[in-house]
Structure formats: C-alpha cells, structure tokens
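Question (not urgent): is this output format expected?
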Amino acid sequence: MIHADWFFALKNAMLPISDFMNQGGAVLWWLAAVVAISWLLVIERVLYIVLSFPKQSQHWIEQWQARRDHSSWYAQAIKQGWLSQAHDELMKNLNFIKVLVSICPMLGLLGTVTGMISVFDVMATMGSSDPKLMASGISLATLPTMAGMVAALAGMFAHSRLAKKCQLSEIKLEKALRSQR
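Got this back:
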C-alpha cells in the first residue's frame, strides 16, 4: 500500500515537469539531456575533489617527505611528475563540462527557431494571425530559450567554482611538496 502511494505521489510531482517539457517541444528534451550529463559530470568532479584527491595528495606528500633527497634532478622530476598527474586528474572533464554548458544557449536558440517556424506554419495554414492559434508556437519559442539560458548560467557558475577549487587544490599540493621535512 505504501509503495502505491509513493508511486502516485511521484507521478503527481512529475506532471508539472512533463507539462513544461511538452510545452517546450523536442528541443527542450535534448536540452534536458545535455544538462543532466553536465550535472552528472559536475557531481563526479565534486566527489573526486572531496573524496579521492585528498587521499592521493596525502600519499604523494608522505612519499615526498619519506625521501632523503629533495634537491637532485631525479627528485625534482618525480615531484613534477606527481604535480602533472595531479593537474591532469583535477582538470579531467572540466573542458567537457564547459562545452556542454556552452551548448545550452545554442539549444535554447534552436528551440526559438523551431517555435517560430511553428508560428509561421500556423499563420500560413490558417491564413490568419489568431493569437490563440499562435500561442503554442510562441510557447515552443520562448521556453527552450529561457531554459537554455538558466542552464547555461547555472553551469557557468558550477564550472567556475570547480575550476577555482581545482586550481587551489593544485597550488596547495605544490606548496606541500615544495616544503622540506
């Protein structure tokens, strides 16, 4: 009985989202897919920065402090290799997130174009400019644009915060490896 109640509550909660997506047309579904992928990558980066990187960073610091030689060319090459590996791991997927974020407004504009085509199609077929007939096309034109801009703004904010956190983590590791015992 509880399972059925949960299902109906979820179904009722999804109706407004489904209505919104249907009003925006097919482009809005593509935009939702791009946003979902970008946010999954953002979550993956946050989890890496919070959970995995501190352990790896601590491991490198312990290995560096356990070394007797810190000044030879070989020791410096090892340190630079670790820093390069840290940089690669920290920056992984950040460019892809940036690309996905920059696609969002473009998909919104594609929704605008398809919505306007729909409006002009109604005008051409019906031979009039009846506002009631054009309303669905105008909705198709405005909703994807708004959604694309909102998604891009949120994605830009998330990307810039992630990039800044990655840079700070990299600098912190470099400083820890620079210090002597």
